[in-house]
From TrEMBL, chains A, B:
Domain Glycoside hydrolase family 31 TIM barrel stretches: 202-517
Alphabetical keyword list: Glycosidase, Hydrolase
Source organism superkingdom: Bacteria
MF GO annotations: carbohydrate binding; hydrolase activity, hydrolyzing O-glycosyl compounds
CDD domains: GH31_N
Domain (Glycosyl hydrolase family 31 C-terminal) ranges: 526-609
Source species of the chain: Victivallis vadensis
Top-level taxonomy: Bacteria, Pseudomonadati, Lentisphaerota, Lentisphaeria, Victivallales
GO biological process: carbohydrate metabolic process
The protein, known as: Alpha-D-xyloside xylohydrolase
Amino acid sequence: MEFLPGVFRFRFGQPENGTPSQQMYVKPPRREAMAELPHAEPPFDASQIKFTVSRRGCRLELPLTSGEDIYGLGLNLKSLRHTGKKRTLRVNSDPATDTGDSHAPAPLYFTTAGYGVLVDTARYASFYCGGNAHLNPKEETRAPEQGGVKLSEAELYALDSSASAPMVIDIPAAPGVDLYLFTGPALLDAVRRYVLFTGGGALPPEWGLGCWYRTCGASDAAQVLAMAKELRDKSIPCDVLGLEPGWQSKAYSCSFKWSPERFPQPDRTVAALNNMGYHVNLWEHLFTHPTSPIYRDLVPYSGDFKVWDGAVPDLTLAPASECFASYHARTFTSRGISSFKLDECDNSDFISSPWSFPECSQFPSGQDGETMHSMLGMLYMETIGRACRKSNIRTYGSVRNAHAFAPPQPFVLYSDLYDHAEFIRGVTTCGFSGMLWTPELRHAVSPEDYLRRLQAMVLSPQMLLNIWSMPHPPWRQLRRELNSAGEFYPEEEQLRLEKATRDILELRMRFLPYLYAAFAEYSFHGTPPFRALTMDVPDDPRLRDVDYAWMAGDRLLAVPFRAGMTELTVPLPEGDWYDFHTGEKYTGEVTLRPAPEELPILVKGSAVVPLAEPVPHITDGMKFKLRLKCFGDAPRPARLFADDGFSFAYENETPRWGEVRADGTLSPELAARYEVLP
Amino acid sequence: MEFLPGVFRFRFGQPENGTPSQQMYVKPPRREAMAELPHAEPPFDASQIKFTVSRRGCRLELPLTSGEDIYGLGLNLKSLRHTGKKRTLRVNSDPATDTGDSHAPAPLYFTTAGYGVLVDTARYASFYCGGNAHLNPKEETRAPEQGGVKLSEAELYALDSSASAPMVIDIPAAPGVDLYLFTGPALLDAVRRYVLFTGGGALPPEWGLGCWYRTCGASDAAQVLAMAKELRDKSIPCDVLGLEPGWQSKAYSCSFKWSPERFPQPDRTVAALNNMGYHVNLWEHLFTHPTSPIYRDLVPYSGDFKVWDGAVPDLTLAPASECFASYHARTFTSRGISSFKLDECDNSDFISSPWSFPECSQFPSGQDGETMHSMLGMLYMETIGRACRKSNIRTYGSVRNAHAFAPPQPFVLYSDLYDHAEFIRGVTTCGFSGMLWTPELRHAVSPEDYLRRLQAMVLSPQMLLNIWSMPHPPWRQLRRELNSAGEFYPEEEQLRLEKATRDILELRMRFLPYLYAAFAEYSFHGTPPFRALTMDVPDDPRLRDVDYAWMAGDRLLAVPFRAGMTELTVPLPEGDWYDFHTGEKYTGEVTLRPAPEELPILVKGSAVVPLAEPVPHITDGMKFKLRLKCFGDAPRPARLFADDGFSFAYENETPRWGEVRADGTLSPELAARYEVLP
């Protein structure tokens, strides 16, 4: 049945309790925006979906057509396209191979045929994406026998072709399941429909799209304040300072109390940071140490296994979730804290020191460890988001797990894994599941690696220098031991890296209004701000495996380079493209050879790109001074969004969209927040 | 309840159909041998085992004591000791990380406290081996808070200690399960009890313990015969020649028909090989191609998905199994074939060209793909073993999957993976599950690597040169491209490597009576022929992680070196140990520095080691000429076993055990098969 405009729901068997839709469908769908999308017939109807159920769980089979490529299934660091592969949605923070293991898997895929499917389950489902054909007892015995003998495993194992193989979905334990089908007609329309269905994408506050710096985990208040001052003194843009585990009296598991040794006067420290224009982000995870003030209250509502000696609160239960949220509001968000880093809500069960609760854990609500692992990040975001809202804070934070219904949650995924190609790929895969991901900087093996890693974040969901393991800024010394020992680069090299850092961070700040508008588009119309090229142009087979470049907003293509790369040829969708830096025009493809300090960016078609004059940090309601870069003969105006940029007021007012035109004029809606410099 | 002497069975809930014991408990237990083992009280009783069941499956919790170390869970290439880890028994041929993924997982563990537990399930169960402690709501709030701040993930994630954490077993789907407890008192007694419970270990024919050579997959009959002749001409010991996929008219999937191009007169070819003293082994897998003569008969008894376009016969059903076995007897085992390589009965679902059937497949018997994957190797071995027995052939073969109840099956596990440390480790892990594993030679990156890899097999279940990808013997050229092009090493180097190969293979042949006796001990008394040191001496903490050396039989310790190693210090169990080559005595530990041509072997205590004069191949019922190596002051006699070495006669006669003494005398039971040379 048509559940919402262009969204069909099919019910098979009797769905279990605690599915993503039951737990996390927390925002009303944006029905009007969905209705505005073009109409498309569903690619198949319920009669073409095969369903069987057994004690083992249920199995769904959906038709696939030849040449149809599969994307999605959550954050995927190992691959973009899933066609022919098996993916098991196991929550795991250390995926070593291309299995579907992920910080943030999601039972949701989209295809180049222009539709999407959400399987409403929190189980570790497996998706066989068209690689397994059925035995057909009536099939003719095929004539061709063996030609040449093959002498490598790769040749032996390669399957001829299996055009007729279906999508097979294996859902453990569940006696039934709801399936949601999102129609196109275009692939991007289907993605938009999903995002709008979940309530629309997150709209971060402007400060959230600024620059982030996480300070050393061992820092005390004085050291944090000194770092805050150093950043301002050096004019390194920074909106958010993050504190790592050392802020707590006990971490691993968490007390959620300030360390009396390191932060004896937290209110004073936080106020000092706020006064310097910083938002403060606190690291935590939800495993609650016995010394925490909320431990006793949470224990009756916790799972039956401990993690790092801490209780695991069952956030599906109101008493636990409300205890957690109220404590955070009372202790933190009402006292100058506006953001959190929600660590380790994924699962790491196969490393040398495995952690988190077993999948067979039992929670007081009746949830088990498997479904709880799938939903833990979502529940945690919702709880912390509520704490922030209690203090009227529109937050933007970090999280290590997400699932279906992620789009409205204002949190960005990150990882301890650190392969740069994978970090870049993550941006291209995330959009298909309405998730946000940052290819954060933690450390770098060389100045080149450092600059490339910084650049990869400029047009990403979050610009984050996570310097948790070093006491001094990375531009003074990249090697941890030396940095810790205060052994810095020669002055000249420090200054070179400091300047390069400032330039890259200022580039981020220049793009901030453009990115903010892309997020507003995500929120109101469902278009992910960062998208694999194939999402926009699924019919171009050259683009289907492009996992190293992405569209940011409607007109920019980011092609971050990695250390060691000197040249890259990128296929371009039809039309004219312009080099952002030189203005040179390309069609068909472009071969890039950027300088080490330069992030390659291409502009789609003749267009205006508005750039803000960089500021060290955002101020609530500030007015952005824009300079325009115009490309081509008839530059399309840029759309910007002009709410106050920090409060929830935008939820109840007519969206303030407006245009910036090549001639420097602005729509009146934008006047309060933007001016164009001559 | 005490099910068999020292074996207790506990039933929880209602076990499902198709468990390992229901399908593969095919040999009667060796009850008398079990009764002869020393008595031990069970370490816990049923009341101490916690059981819960839900639609998700069932959960068992068994007590563990502090310092108790966990071993087993099948073939494990990634680690020997499982304490504190999670292991999921997923059948997978490409385990990349230490998760429990394995060609041959088994729901069976043993601990240093001297007992074993078999969980009778074919599900992909997870074992949390003491790493997860329960939340105790009554626990005192613990005082200690954070000391120093940690600045690495390894430090952060390390758990203090969890002495009180249980073994938690998570079994999907099953509404209940039987659990078998094997008492000690010693760890080795518990392992023996398990092996005897399953019917006793496999006793290969003597020829199976000789040397194996797999010929190039592209070879035709003339080329195979030429290789057979070359091995004899060069006096390279070889008992079994293996033919790779090219012998079939169609492989991937299989026709089970001889290729009319490459093997136009198979009976004549096989007879010629037999006449040269070779046993012939045929590669196959069970996925049956439409052009196979048995395809039409198998289709009605096959799973609902194809693999490589072939049907997957449901070997739990008599019509399928009997069709398969009869065809093999009729076509192969009655016509000179005595051994098979059962490939790809595991599962490879996450590689770039994934293969095998989905875990949600449905089979006509009611089994699903998950349980079928667990049992596929066992069912396949049983079926092929039946074909051999129809032709009165006591076989020894190769297989890529096994599970519980593996001990009586005369098949050796192998892998496409090729890390030498992992290959060596496999020998140490396999014994805990009553499985056999060969660190086969496929190729080598250098002559040193080649010799080290050969040496590692001398005291292993199978001495196998798997030269399937090269037309010429490896001692002529190790690099595949050059070998294929006929570009060989200089004559002198060829001769050096040929001689070194011959020496190593002849060393294998010298140990053959000793190894055969170790297998007879396995068969009649349950002692695995190859054992991690810790299995024999669990109380010595220095030995618990020794995954690079193993006991072979009762008195030899093999310490294979890998390429690049020059020196290794090995902790030795209490008592005197002797260098096999020099006779030097060691206690406590030994530092080894073997020459590249030398496999380090240590002899336990003062002992006789009987060595056979090498022969190019075993002849049925032949008489072995022994030379004795004696170590220490009062060498313990060696036990040998003297059935005919090739038929099933031993099953119905009094076991013919006898002693070889340091003075060169023999027990009369041995006289027909052995003589001692002066």
